[in-house]
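Problem 12. The chain below contains 176 residues. Write out its predicted structure in token notation.
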Amino acid sequence: MTRIIAGFGGVGKTTLAKKYKNVLDLESTPYKYLIENYGNYDAEAVKGQGIAKKELNPDFPNNYVAAIQENIGKYDYILVWCHPEQSLPNLDKAHIDYEIFLPTRDALDEYRQRFINRGNSEEYVNRVSSKEDYDKRLPQWKALGKPIVFLEAGETLESYLTAHPEYPKLMPRDNI
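Solution.
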């Protein structure tokens, strides 16, 4: 059974998918935007730094939901965008079950540093690590009625999943 995990930015979705063959990080950016020469950009740069000529894709979010549905059963984990207003209600409409992984409020300073370390823009860093924005969105995430896992400072999605045997075992890629 595929586990859909809606993970807050910085929990380690991209890292997890690079290390394990049974994990798909379904980054929303290529579905949300029409980006000329998208393949020439680093995914982190596109989502966290902004790229000129980035216009909304009229097929979003339906194209994103379809991509999730197409990959159910192919992976043990599909990691998705965690936006409580834009992406998650569309998963609910499509009857796609998911869990939400968020940092604790106290861990946001660590996440801020993670965003800086990975080269995200100042605007992105300030917006995504904002305690005020977190406080605004937390009730929205809770209102979705889905299980929420709160990651403490120093904890990542990988460390959580490997410490909890109720989750499928992560399968390392052969080329690592």
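Discussion. The first helix runs from residue 13 to 19. Students who got a different answer should revisit the alignment rule from Section 12.3.
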